[in-house]
Amino acid sequence: MTITEFLTARFNEEEAAARETLAKRPNTAAMSEHLAEHEISDAEAVSRAAARKLTLHETNSWLVGLSPHRVLDDVEAKRKVVALYRFRSEQADPGVGMPDVAAQIEARAVGQVLRILSLPYDGHPDYDWSWRP
């Protein structure tokens, strides 16, 4: 498995978990109607929500404290770094003719960024320790 394949798989997992979290959220309009219908103030609703404990199963514990939208934006940005690396790597070694030296330099630099992006996943069973920067 290459570092780009590894990172893409992790990004896919994070995206799926964020989308699952979004899908489980109650409809805001319906929630507002429910609160108004039962004469529950926003403060009381927040207090009730805070009093409830969520299980790890319900929350995707590694996402606690992060907005699912923030996770999706983060995944998209990281995917762009992987795409840049793949693009510049292809340009660096076209297979025919002279290699693009600028592309080689950029591919190496972005490759180091991928190594850094892989660090939070070093506990994953598929993580390759040779990727460490």
Could you walk me through the main structural features you see in this protein, from its secondary elements to its overall organization?
With 133 residues, the chain is mainly alpha-helical. 67% of the residues lie in helices and 0% in strands. The chain has helices at 3-24, 28-37, 42-51, 56-59, 68-92, 101-118. The two termini are 17 Å apart. Mean pLDDT is 76; it is low at 50-59. It has 6 helices and no strands.
Number of helices: 6
Q: Give the C-alpha Rg.
A: 21 Å
* Head-to-tail CA distance between termini: 17 Å
* Major β-sheet annotation: none
Which structural category fits the helices and strands? mainly alpha
Shape: elongated
**Roughly how much helix do the residues carry, as a percent range?**
55-70%
Unreliable stretches (pLDDT < 50, length at least 5) are: 50-59
* Residue fraction in strands: under 5%
Return the average pLDDT rounded to an integer: 76
Per DSSP E runs of 2 or more residues, the count of β-strands stands at 0
Order of helices and strands: HHHHHH
